[in-house]
Amino acid sequence: MKRLLATCLALLSLVMGSSAIAGDTTALTAIKERGTLRVGLSTFVPWAMRDKQGELIGFEVDVARRLADDAGLKVEFIPTAWDGIIPALLANKFDVIIGGMTITERRKKSVLFSIPYSHSGIQLAANKKLAKDLTTIESYNSRRVKIAVRRGATTATLAKKLFPRAKIYQFDDDNMAFQEVLNGNAHAVIASTPKPEHETLRHSYLLYMPFKDPLANGDEGFVMRLGDDELKAYFDGWIAARTNDGFLQERYDYWFKTLEWEDIVADY
């Protein structure tokens, strides 16, 4: 493990120095000369959010800070609305998006992704009393089963696909969908990570996640402009190193599988 980590870090140093040798003003060269990595992100709990002092905290913040520190750079966070974050990247408002963006073929047409640094998905949380006899995924595909989802979301589409016989109730937001299950009006709710994990921790007396594996998986990557291949090579090497030494998993588990941080977060 130590030998692999040392090799990855050596490769990172080689990539960082190669752009200067080539003499080209690449994105990596510009970052190195500036001495600051500009990171675009949107505020989504627990990816990135404000603490009670107004400072940014969260999984993405930890990742970006460690990335910059390892590279000997400062980091500048540029919070950006989600619907405008890719246009802002393309307009050179920042160097990279580290913001929980799922890698998709459609997005690959306009931006460049690193290898995955986190893996999320869509999970089902169920009412312990109502769903106690529903022990398999197939058992939820029944006319007597009621499933709550957020209207218009990917989760709603997936629910209809996996459980065509179930009654699908749609709500304006995830909180309303979970409340329907907590109130005993639906057997289960389907939502994206980490909402099911966090709500089952908050309401462990009533909610549980019956299936270990998610109903659908997603991979998140750093996002760059097309053509920033040298920068991608650097990020890929860093992600490989931090995956192998356990840093990324440790930070993911803290923010997504516990609520130890909840008391320091501003109201959300």
In short:
The protein is an alpha/beta fold and 268 residues long. The chain has two domains: 2-117 and 221-264, Periplasmic binding protein-like II (D-Maltodextrin-Binding Protein, domain 2); 122-217, Periplasmic binding protein-like II (D-Maltodextrin-Binding Protein, domain 2, 3-Layer(aba) Sandwich), CATH 3.40.190.10. It contains ten helices and 13 strands.
Description:
- By secondary structure, the chain is an alpha/beta fold.
- The protein has two domains: 2-117 and 221-264, 3-Layer(aba) Sandwich (D-Maltodextrin-Binding Protein, domain 2); 122-217, Periplasmic binding protein-like II (D-Maltodextrin-Binding Protein, domain 2).
- The protein is 39% helix and 21% strand.
- The chain is built from ten helices and 13 strands.
- The protein has helices at 2-22, 27-34, 59-70, 85-90, 105-108, 154-162, 174-182, 195-202, 229-244, 247-257, and strands at 36-41, 49-50, 56-57, 74-79, 96-97, 111-113, 118-127, 146-150, 167-171, 188-192, 207-208, 216-220, 223-225.
- The strands form four sheets. Strands 7, 8, 9, 10, 11 and 12 form a six-stranded mixed β-sheet that branches.
- Helix 6 links the parallel strand 8 (146-150) and strand 9 (167-171).
- Helix 1 packs antiparallel against helix 9 (229-244).
- It is elongated and about 60 Å long.
